[in-house]
Amino acid sequence: MDKVFAIGDIHGSYQLLDKVLDYWNPNEELLIFLGDYIDRGKDSLQVLRKVIELSKEYKVITLSGNHEQIFLNWLKKPKVMSEFYFDQKVGGASTIESFFSAMPHQPSMEDLSFEQMVEILKTNFADEIEFLKNLRLYYYWRPYVFVHAGINAGVDDFLETGSDEFLWIREEFTKVPHQAKEIVVFGHTPTIFLNEDGSSKVWISPCRKKIGIDGGGEIYKDGNIHGVRFQRNSSEIEVYSANGKGITTSHFTL
Are the CB atoms for 15 and 224 separated by under 8 Å? Predict the structure, then answer.
């Protein structure tokens, strides 16, 4: 396709995701999700099921975020990972609650050990877990690389980036120009920490080769979920930003 519609971190904010999807044209545009579908927000399962539904019906690229990897690691080692995963900053409790609330006989987290929680999830949500296990780390759509967190800024070939860097890198990528020729579209680091004015608008690096589209969603005051449209052979980029007040549109030229 000659157009891409990329959506940044969602974190269980289903209503904002739904607003942004109204501006995606499935007949003309490849849809790319940059990961972090779950945790923190209250509707993680609903978001995940929507992403899965769209993936079955249309051409959709689903990338992994670090939060999907944290969840999968917790499933493997609940005793080791639970203190970290259920920390408020990570927000794993809201994800488990969203899964449990979808069950006919809703389990109470307070009555279960972490191992019991894991067994319930594995038994009742095998399809969703399998989907998370098969997410991509990046997608290359020349001249753009779409990735959750960023790339190794010191390599000429972005493919030399390590898997942990694709999912977790922050200042080592955002603070310096990268050597690879590609323009990197990423989430992970909320743009309120990148924009000088502290706003949640899409961030463009001084070198014009990095585009941050994690608007923070419902997690931050005045946060947004951004849907960003890219067109082949065009430097014009359109942005659709959803928050509790509605949708705003903007554009910029690289």
Answer: no
| 96: three-class secondary structure by DSSP | helix
What are the pLDDT digits (tens) for 95-105? 999 999 999 99
Closest CA to 37 of 22, 52, 57: 52
Residue 155 contacts residue 181 (beta carbons within 8 Å) = no
Distance CA 76, CA 132 (A): 14
- Which structure tokens are listed for 118? 């894991």
User: Distance (Å, rounded) from C-alpha 224 to C-alpha 171?
Assistant: 22
Say if residues 215 and 225 touch (Cβ distance below 8 Å): yes
DSSP-derived pairing of the beta strands 138-141 and 144-147: antiparallel
Q: How far apart are CA 95 and CA 237, in angstroms?
A: 33
Mean pLDDT of 11-24: 97
Exposed, middle or buried by CB within 10 Å (0-12, 13-18, 19+), for 23? Answer: middle
Q: Measured between alpha carbons, how far apart are the two ends of the chain, in Å?
A: 20
Q: Using CA atoms, how far apart are residues 248 and 178, in angstroms rounded to an integer?
A: 31
**Residue 143 preceded by cis peptide, ω within 30:** yes
- Residue 232 pairs with which residues in a beta bridge? none
Residue 95's CB: how many other CB atoms inside 10 A? Answer: 30
CA dihedral 39, 43, 46, 50 (to 10 degrees): -70
Q: Minimal CA–CA distance to 190: which of 40, 49, 28?
A: 40
Three-class DSSP category at 29: strand
CA atoms of 205 and 64, how far apart (whole Å): 23
Pairwise CA distance, residues 215 & 201, whole Å? 6
pTM over 0.90: yes
